[in-house]
């Protein structure tokens, strides 16, 4: 993933450097690992990766960063509204129940998004800003969408909190 992002950002033509970086964190994954064991956690991660790949499809690339964190990179100019819709679809898809070792498991997801060039022009800047947006999303349960130009934004699903159906809320980070 890092190599692909570096390749995009080092393209000689500035207009070809446009991209979006999503950082995803699974909510309640640790509970699955702790109560059902690491093999169940591994099985869950495989199913999450499959669902994420299907949801993102050929729009971008998906990779696991480690633990319960994933990254999505979309190459090309992106509209924030379309990215927010994709983030909500990802949250809804990942929040659907999973069958793991004969049990039904429900988790949630939080998403932070940063765009090149608006939120950074280097891989470090984009990842840092997507991470900040993810952190803000995790602390913004149920927050209404806020629209501010040129700031990374994050989304969290209500299904992650156990307080209702999985509906994503997106918030721009100030």
What is the residue-averaged pLDDT? Answer: 84
What shape does the CA trace take?
A: elongated
Beta-strand percentage? 25-35%
How many alpha or pi helices? 5
Overall SS class = alpha+beta
Oligomer: single chain
How are the strands of the biggest sheet laid out side by side? 2-3-1-6-7-8
Order of helices and strands: HEHHEEHEEEHEE
How would you characterize the overall build of this protein?
By secondary structure, this protein is of the alpha+beta class. 38% of the residues lie in helices and 27% in strands. The chain has 5 helices and 8 strands; from the N terminus they run αβααββαβββαββ. The chain has helices spanning 2-9, 29-36, 38-56, 80-94, 123-138; strands at residues 19-27, 61-66, 69-75, 98-100, 103-105, 108-116, 153-157, 168-172. The protein has a 6-stranded antiparallel beta sheet, with helices on both faces. Strands 4-5 form a two-stranded antiparallel ribbon. The protein is elongated, with a radius of gyration of 16 Å. The model is unreliable at 142-151 and 158-169 (pLDDT under 50).
TL;DR?
The protein has 5 helices and 8 strands. It has 174 residues and is α+β, with helices and mostly antiparallel strands.
Write the layout of secondary structure elements.
Layout (H helix, E strand, L loop, with lengths): L1 H8 L9 E9 L1 H8 L1 H19 L4 E6 L2 E7 L4 H15 L3 E3 L2 E3 L2 E9 L6 H16 L14 E5 L10 E5 L2
Antiparallel strand pairs: 1-3, 1-6, 2-3, 4-5, 6-7, 7-8
């Amino acid at each position: 993933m890092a190599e692909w992002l570096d390749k995009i950002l080092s393209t000689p033509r500035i207009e070809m450097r446009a991209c979006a970086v999503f950082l995803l964190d699974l909510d309640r994954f640790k509970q699955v690992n702790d109560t059902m064991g690491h093999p169940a956690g591994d099985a869950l991660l495989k199913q999450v990766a499959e669902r994420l790949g299907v949801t993102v499809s050929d729009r971008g690339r998906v990779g696991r960063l480690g633990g319960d964190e994933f990254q999505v990179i979309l190459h090309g100019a992106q509209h924030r509204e379309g990215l927010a819709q994709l983030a909500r679809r990802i949250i809804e898809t990942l929040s659907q129940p999973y069958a793991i070792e004969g049990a039904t498991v429900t988790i949630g997801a939080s998403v932070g998004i940063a765009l090149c060039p608006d939120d950074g022009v280097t891989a470090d800047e984009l990842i840092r800003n997507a991470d900040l947006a993810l952190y803000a999303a995790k602390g913004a349960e149920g927050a209404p969408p806020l629209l501010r130009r040129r700031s990374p934004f994050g989304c969290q699903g209500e299904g992650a909190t156990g307080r209702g159906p999985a509906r994503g809320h997106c918030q721009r980070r100030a």
